[in-house]
Amino acid sequence: MPSNLVRSLFGLLVPAGLLAQEIPPAEYAARRDSLTAHLDSGVVVAFGAPDPVSIGRWAQLPAFRYLTGFLEPNAVLVLVKRGGAESGTLFTAARDPRRALYDGFPPDSATVARRTGLAVRSLPALAPMADSLVGLGLPIYDLRDFATWDAASQDSLTRGARFIADLLARHPGRGFEVRDAHPRLDSLRAMKSPAELAQLRRAINITVASVKQAMRSAKPGMWEYELEAMIEGGFRRAGADGPSFGSIVGSGPNSTQYHYEKNDRPMRAGDVVVMDVGAAYHGYAADVTRTIPVGGRLTAEQRAIYQLVRDAQAASERVAKPGASWADWRTATREVEARGLARLGLIESAQAIFDPPWAERCR
Questions:
Q1: CA 303-309-310 angle, 5° bins
Q2: How are strands ordered across the β-sheet holding 85-92?
Q3: Tell me: the pLDDT tens digits for 26-66?
Q4: What number is the average pLDDT over the span 309-315?
Q5: Percent helix, strand, coil in the chain (nearest 5)?
Q6: 162/165 Cα distance (integer angstroms)
Q7: Neighbouring residues of 62: CB distance < 8 A, sequence distance ≥ 6
Q8: Within 10 A of 166 (CB to CB), how many other CB atoms are there?
């Protein structure tokens, strides 16, 4: 039977939201245990991503996916630790049957419970359960559902933020605390299991293969978006979810913009093009940046800067070992950059400084 037909039939047999779960349920359970291990008692409330607001690829929030592996929108995880006993409940939203014609059939609660190892309840039961737990005097640790870290402190209108605000409003004078669980979870996510490393390597290998193809194909007269399409098409052909962030393909003057994403300029002979791209594979992201000459050869000035960057990278690679600090890496890199820029006459000396407009953010 052709492999594509096998995949199609498999997709019909397995409910949406439970495909491609290569990390075993026991590992998700161990992550939840690690998160609550430092609590004497308390309640962790983690919010998943809401329904998509536009047509496009929906993605689960990283913190929620890390703890559950559940890939359906509008879910909430509640972990309770009290008197040494722990329990976990996943609250899921009912789907409008008409939406199933568009989005597919969600897994039923029995399937979700079996695959996640969690008790499963409907979303309307969440507020009454939270009220009862607050009544017991247990502190609340929340994992908010902000879309990006830039919006973490300003975004007060997310579903999770409103739920916590309403919970506080329903219990005035109780004096219970709401604490941020993200720092603890972030420290756990920094350590990768063998299964996670395999996912990361797959994401990186897919990215590298696509970038190599783009490097071989770039030529004067091509548009930046042609390289973008080639790279992202390579991601999907290799089984990736898609790009892990907006692809940056900047040539000529656009190559100096950190987060250039228009990718709509024709590339010319004499340009360099910067490709800052990454594939997402089952929730794990790669990030690879390469700079190449569009015409196949660097000018003398471009070569000098390219070599300086490569020398700085080599210096950081020598320092990047177990036990080294971020400051060690930064110092080694900056010293090479400063000496090289001074040698090229682009700064006054290796000790030169400048006053950036964002200086207040560096204090």
A1: 85
A2: 119-122, 85-92, 76-82, 42-47, 140-143, 178-180
A3: 999 999 999 999 888 899 999 999 987 766 778 899 999 99
A4: 96
A5: 45, 15, 40
A6: 5
A7: 189, 283
A8: 12
